[in-house]
TrEMBL record:
Protein known as: Diaminopimelate epimerase
Gene: dapF
GO BP annotations, alphabetical order: lysine biosynthetic process via diaminopimelate
One of the Pfam families matching this protein, by short name: DAP_epimerase
PANTHER family given in the database record: DIAMINOPIMELATE EPIMERASE, DIAMINOPIMELATE EPIMERASE, CHLOROPLASTIC
Length: 271
């Protein structure tokens, strides 16, 4: 038996996922498919898999699987791309969309030019579980924990180019302090309200950008008096603007959403 699954490869500031509309192409084993399809040499190549579906609480639902098959609660860059996907593929004509995620319902505001969505603002809700970690003699820095639905550990340094991310990233991701593992961000203030950040993502390793990570970094910068309520976070693959709204306490993330290509996976199964 042959099964065809249509997918779209999209990225948000270089953070690339495979997007599947599960109303048309149900995926029974997303953990396995995320591992298989994310591989660069033998799969499609991506940071993970995002499933778009229906919801009884919101316009659409989103599930995010990292490249190692683990499911995360939220994906900032992915949520912007879901907004672009559902609008440009005609699943909705709304420009304000509610999205059901494991970390609650998020509101997407699409900025549309002609028929194209280039940027999206996402109300990411309030940051949670913030706290400082003083590593004392183990590492020569102090870090800030921030949950944006998923866990982040943000460390500000004077010179980000001196950080050996492939070495320290997995070490901190899997540190015993974080039983559920953590995403790891290193950041440097490079100008007024301008932050350069690199990320080691839980379950995917170094990625070009992380939306929730950018939110966590901007929050950590504000908490530590390093930036104001609104800042630009420059990552390897692009920049997002993060605003911590004083009235609602919510984080508003604005950034690009880009389509790379459409494709189809043809699976041959023994009948
Ligand atoms: N890249 C994403 C976050 C994806 C999930 C993360 N790796 C986790 O396991 O928490 C983003 O843009 O937020």
């Amino acid at each position: 038996m042959t099964t065809i699954i249509k997918f779209t490869k999209m990225h948000g500031a270089g953070n690339d996922y495979i997007y599947v509309d599960t109303t048309r192409y149900p995926i029974a084993d997303p953990e396995k498919k995320a591992i298989e399809w994310s591989k660069f040499h033998t799969g499609i190549g991506s940071d993970g898999l995002i499933l778009i579906g229906v919801s009884d609480k919101a316009d659409f639902s989103m599930r995010i699987f990292n490249a190692d098959g683990s499911e995360a609660m939220m994906c900032g860059n992915g949520s912007r791309c879901v907004g672009k996907y559902v609008y440009e593929y005609g699943l909705t004509d709304k420009t304000e969309i509610t999205l059901d995620t494991l970390s609650g319902i998020k509101i997407l505001k699409l900025q549309v030019e002609g028929k194209t969505v280039n940027t999206v603002t996402v109300d990411m809700g309030s940051p949670q579980e913030t706290g400082e970690i003083d590593w004392r003699k183990k590492y020569p820095f102090q870090s800030t924990k921030v949950s944006m639905g998923n866990p982040h550990l943000v460390t500000f340094v004077d010179d980000i180019t001196r950080i050996n991310l492939p070495e320290i990233g997995p070490e901190l991701e899997n540190h015993p302090l974080f039983p559920d593992r953590t995403n790891v961000e290193f950041a440097q203030i490079v100008g007024k309200d301008t932050i350069r950040m690199r990320v080691w993502e839980r379950g995917s390793g170094i990625t070009q950008a992380c939306g929730t990570g950018a939110c966590a970094t901007a929050v950590a910068a504000f908490i530590n008096g390093l930036a104001g309520r609104k800042s630009d976070v420059i990552m390897d693959g692009g920049t997002v603007t993060i605003e911590w709204d004083e009235t609602s306490g919510h984080i508003l993330m604005t950034g690009p959403a880009t389509k790379v290509f459409d494709g189809e996976i043809v699976e041959e199964m023994e009948s």
